[in-house]
Each structure stands twice: as C-alpha cells, then as structure tokens.
Amino acid sequence: MGETKDFIRTFIDEDIKAGKNGGHVETRFPPEPNGYLHIGHSKAICINFGIAGDYNGLCHLRFDDTNPVKEDVEYVDSIMEDVKWLGFDWGKHLYYASDYYEKIYKYAVELINKSKAYVCDLNVDEIRQYRGTLTEPGKNSPYRNRSLEENLAMFEKMKKGEFPDGKCSLRAKIDMAHPNLNMRDPVIYRIKHATHHRTGDKWCIYPTYDYAHPVSDAIEKITHSLCSLEFEDHRPLYDWVLDNITIDCHPRQIEFARLNLTYTVMSKRKLLELVQNKFVSGWDDPRLPTISGLRRRGYTSGSIRDFCDRIGIAKSNSTVDLALLEHCIREDLNKTAPRVMVVLDPIKVVITTYPDGQVEEFDAENNPEDPSAGTRKIPFSKTIYIEREDFREDPPKKFFRLAPGQEVRLKHAYYITLEKVIKDEKTGEILELHCKHDPQSRGGGTPDNRRVQGTLHWVSAGHAIDAEVRLYENLFTKSDPDNTKEGEDFKSFINPNSLKNLINCKAEPGLMNLKPGLRFQFLRHGYFCVDLETTPAKPVFNRIVTLRDTWAKLNK
User: Fold this and answer.
1) What is the pLDDT of residues 148-175, one digit of tens each?
2) At a CB cut-off of 8 Å and minimum separation 6, what does 368 contact?
3) Calpha distance 353→416 (Å, rounded)
4) Residue 32 catalytic?
5) What pLDDT is recorded for position 39?
6) Partner of 540 for a Cys bridge, out of 109, 379, 534, 545, CB 3.0 to 4.6 A?
7) Considering 258, 330, 409, 543, which one is annotated as catalytic?
C-alpha cells in the first residue's frame, strides 16, 4: 500500500486499531446473476479483492440470487469467468444467497415474533401510494397491526404457496414517517412462483436484496461490506436488519463512488435492452462495456486493473473520460504487442524496375520497445499493396505520401517514385500504380542520405493473405447517453458508424493460423486483436484502439 490511503483503507485501519474483528479483514463481491458484468463492476472487483489482499484477508464471491425471474446460470458462469480473467481468485469462498434461504427465512420469522415484521395485503401500486414522498410522510398499512399469530400463519401460507404472486408480502415494521424512504416498512419477502436456477421449485417466496444482503454478509462473517454509492441510503436498513435479528456479526458498510464512463451506458437494464433488441451482436459485442466485450475486443486484464487503480476510490460520483481507459490499453500493448503490416483498403502497386519473379526478404523488428522480441522476415516482390488513402493523383499541399513524381519510403524496404497511374478506360477507376524503385535504398537508406518525408506500410501481393478487419467506434454519439430529455430514448444516440467491417484487407503472410486473443499493432492503424470468429484461412481482427492518444496529450 502507498503512503496516501483512500478513505476505505483509513476506515479499516481505524477498525483494526480499535481491535474490531480481531484485526481480520473479510470482504465480498456480491453480483446479482441477472446480466453480464461491465467495466463498472471491474472497479468493485478490484476494490473488494484488492483491499482484502492488502490486509492479508479474504474476499468471497457471492451471488445474490434472490430474483429467479431475472437470473440465469449463463450469467453465473460468465461472472466467474470475468472475475478469474481479471486476475482474482476467491479460492473456496464461493457462495450463493440461496445457500442461506432456510436461515434467511428463520430470521424473518424471528422479526415477526419480535413484532418487527408483518404480512401486508397491499399490492405493489398501493404500497407505493402509501409510502409518501420526500416531503410527506407515508401512511400505515391497514394490515400493519395484524396479530402475531395471524402474521405467522399467513407467512407460513405464503411459504407453502397458498397465495398467488402479488397477493401479499412480508414487510419490516419500522416507521412510515421516517425521513429515509427505504425505512418506511420496506418489503423483505415477496411471492414469486418461479423456478430458481439452483433451488428449483422448493421456494415460492424470495427475500428482497435489501434484506438478504445484510443477512448473507453476517452469515459469512464479512467485516467490511464495500458497495457503491447508490446503497448509501440503504445503509440504515442494512444496519436495522442486523440490529434486530440474533446474529453475532455486524459488518460495517462503506460506500464508494460508482464508475461512470463517457459514451457508455452502465445500466444492466439498458445493456440487456441493447442485446435483446439486437442493437449489438450479444453480451460480448466489442462495442459494449461488458468485461466479456472488452476481452473480446482485445483489452487486457492488466490494462483494466491499471485503469481502476488510476481512477482511485472516491466518495462522490463523477464521469471518467473513455480516453483514460484507451490510454491504459495503449500503454500496456505498446510494450508487448508485435508490430505487423496490414493494408486495410488495398491498391496495387507495380514496381516496374524490379526484376520479374524476384523475391527478397527483409528483416523487420517485432517491437521497438522490446529488443528481446527479435525480428521477423517479410517477403518483398515486384507487386505490392499499399493503402488507397496513401495515394493522391492531385495531392494537397504537404501531402507526403505517394503522388505523381513524388518519392516515398516503403517501411523496411526501398524508396519508390510514382511514374504512372493505370485506370480503367471506361470507368476511370484506378486499377494500379506504376512506380520505379531505387536499388541503392534497400533497407531504407541511400548513399546520398536524401530525406524522404513519407513512409508507407505495404504487403507483397504474391504473399499477402486475405483478412477481415472490424473497426469499432463509440457505440453512442453522445458523451452522456444516459442524460436524456423527456421523450428521448438513449437508443436514439446509437452511433450508426460504430462498426465498419472491412473484408478485403491484405496482411503479412505470418498472420496465418492465429489463435483468438492474440494482439498486434498494425503499423499506422492501431492495436488489433484476433477475434473469436477467425479461421485458419482468413484471420478476423478487431481494432482495440487507434494509435492516437488524446489522454496522454491532454495530460502532459
């Protein structure tokens, strides 16, 4: 740990100094298995596992699976994969709130016996109406003063499935005039005749998150319940539940600011809407902020941990610039990603002065940031491909790439000069460019050391392999798509150009038979990752990020 500690570690230090919990620290990461994790969850994962590690403590992974209607084993499996991929290990401490259903139920019975809970026949809308507002107190339910015997009997009937969904609920009896709306007799059990992914049809009543969560924490003897800031108003209820049941552990809840990111939505509901309505290809679509989407796009676990470390732990919510996340992956891949040449929009160049049938091999460094990465051989021949945008027949001023009579350097190879543009006689389409080369410039230099300002990447036409390259931009055109006016829909800000699929790219021959997940820097284009849909014959690449680092420039 560094010298400057965040407020969570300061609180923990205070507890240790005061002799609480025997100096032990135990945290938990408690996702609900109702969707895939996103970049915001990665912050919570890093905080919970990181802090426990700093104090030689433990961090549990617990699924708060209290709503069978929205939960699925698919989400459970994906969450475990994401946490492991980020580099964290819960060891033997994998739990589910459903593991504790019997105990949670018995604690609810205890609350009834203490006249701290009652069965209420009001429906959801009526409970909302009785609740009051921030400026007006709520009204007591007409069922609030049911007898102890009637409450116990009705709760038992709820458990046995004798009532339909919505007929009644179990509510905590606290204070309908409490200034905190969460304390106005919140529902702690509701009826749901739904099959649970772990308990099947054993239960038809399920505890609410606000009730099951503190009880589960206490059962697991968590010392510090770290959660995001939206649960700050729920802390009095967290404490109330544990103060009113017979349990020998009372974790300290501490809230931190959640992560918000520009050009992104973090709501599970909105992400699910994007997936279900096919605005994206799935939960692992590289345009989504899901951890699986970032992984498929090519982000490394180290870059995400670095990002979470840089943004730190704050007490107030703010929005982080997406450029910082992109800066973190650039810094990571700049050190590790091999450099290769891939032409995204090819135009053919014939070097008329180069011998027919001759093939040379040039040495190319794999990573100038890492001399130990060595070199590779690149074939060169009479016909090559360059980027179409690297040629202008009528160039603007300060255009230093290929133009009539203009000389450029081919990376690792020769200097060439454009002599002739070959066009289709009928359509005027440019078919190929004819150039001459300077044999004395082999490897990129000349005896007279003349200066050439333009350097182009290229691939040999006879050796190139076909590749598909997917260029990604922000999914939204608006930096804060959650900030909508009345009548607006966040989906109206979806960027129609968020994915550009290039299917006729040309790549170095060494990029055959690649495994998904490998990362490269395409010279001048950015960092790319081999996609899951790649084939041995035709690799498929996702652009992770461009080379331009706006964050680094702004923060010099």
Assistant:
1) 999 999 999 999 999 999 999 999 999 9
2) 339
3) 10
4) yes
5) 96
6) 534
7) 258
